[in-house]
Amino acid sequence: MSIKLEHDKNKQAMTSFCMSRAILEDYAKTIARIEGRNEEEVVQRVRVRTRELMKELSDSAKIDETVVTASEGIKQDSKIINAQGNNKISQSKSMALENDRHHSSIVKNSSLKQPDLFASQPLASKKGKNLDMTDGDVIVFPDFFSKNQSDLYFKNLLNDIKWRQDKIKFYGKEMPLPRLTAWYGETDKPYSYSGIPMNPDPWTPDLLAIKSELEKIANVSFSSVLLNLYRDGKDSVSWHSDDEKELGENATIASVSFGDTRTFQFKHKYLKELPKVDVPLSHGSVVIMQGTTQHYWQHQIPKTSRDLKERINLTFRVIK
Ligand SMILES: O=C(O)CCC(=O)C(=O)O
Ligand SMILES: [Fe+2]
Questions:
Q1: What domain range includes position 41?
Q2: Would you indicate the residue range of the signal peptide (predicted)?
């Protein structure tokens, strides 16, 4: 199959190329050999990235459609369930749980329901729960910001942030990303995300206040933040790891959510037998991803046919 990929961003050796998958993998192996890196791992990363780009393309194509009917939405959801092997806890069930309990549950997509880890915690508690993931270190704070603080931040960010509609290029065609984004932080730290160069706007008072709260639990000093605005259930981010070289080895990322609850999903890159992990991210919640998480796990916010309102997500990062 012939594929076109835009660039090798790490080496900036090519801006775009079109070749068969076999040749591409061969090329990746050669680069790995020259750089003394593990060939299998590099090839695996190329495969993952190829799949991500193809997924982004098809997601964008779907978003481009002006009418998505309810029945189409339902079909999409059932495909996801089948792809996950007819798990007894289906995606729609876990979504319903998420809705009902609002702040409280973590559901792993295995045939067994996990205990409700947050049920006994008081609201606004700042105590996190480690998700205990193989090769990963992810801590969730379901009610990090109070309802009042969260309402205020949500309103301010929606109005004040310079939201933009980015595009991705694939097969030479430009497609809109299925969400709006913005990039703020130290203005001398350039960064590219999914191949898109980002020029940060300077910190705002709200962003600085949020950052300072997060630094107390993450024990790092964040230099920038990527913001995502999911306008409704059709907006999404597809499977990826935040492993750009600017973030360095074992990046610490703090992710804050305001607005409607969405399901954050994790899957292990190599151990396919491990169940996916679903985490409902509600208004005012925080997730810290650290250690080897980005090496071994991918995450996504899947589309849903449920009628959802806006959600804002901020991922604070350290650019080296
Ligand atoms: O919206 C989210 O919770 C995740 C966003 C994300 O993964 C990213 O921006 O890298
Ligand atoms: Fe991410």
A1: 2-64
A2: none
Among left, alpha and beta (phi > 0; psi -120 to 50; other), residue 97 is alpha
Measured in Å, residue 67 CA sits from the centre of ligand 2 at: 28
**Do 60 and 119 have their domain in common?**
no
pLDDT in tens, 133-170: 999 999 999 999 999 999 999 999 999 999 999 988 77
Co-location of 172 and 216 in the same domain: yes
Q: Classify residue 221 by burial, with Cβ atoms within 10 Å: 0-12, 13-18, 19+.
A: exposed
- Which helix or strand (DSSP H or E) is residue 34 part of? helix 21-34
User: What is the C-alpha separation between 141 and 124, in angstroms, rounded?
Assistant: 9
Q: Would the pTM count as exceeding 0.90?
A: no
| The pLDDT of residue 65 | 28
ipTM higher than threshold 0.90: yes
Q: How far apart are CA 126 and CA 140, in angstroms?
A: 10
Is 26 part of a structural domain of the chain? yes
Ligand 1 neighbours, Cβ below 6 Å, are: 226, 228, 237, 242, 255, 264, 281, 299, 301, 313, 315
* Residue 73, in any domain of the structure: no
Q: Are 284 and 258 in contact (CB under 8 A)?
A: yes
Determine the pLDDT at residue 109.
34
- Judge whether 75 lies within some domain: no
Tell me how far the alpha carbon of residue 263 lies from the centroid of ligand 1, in angstroms: 11
**203 near 211, Cβ under 8 Å?**
yes
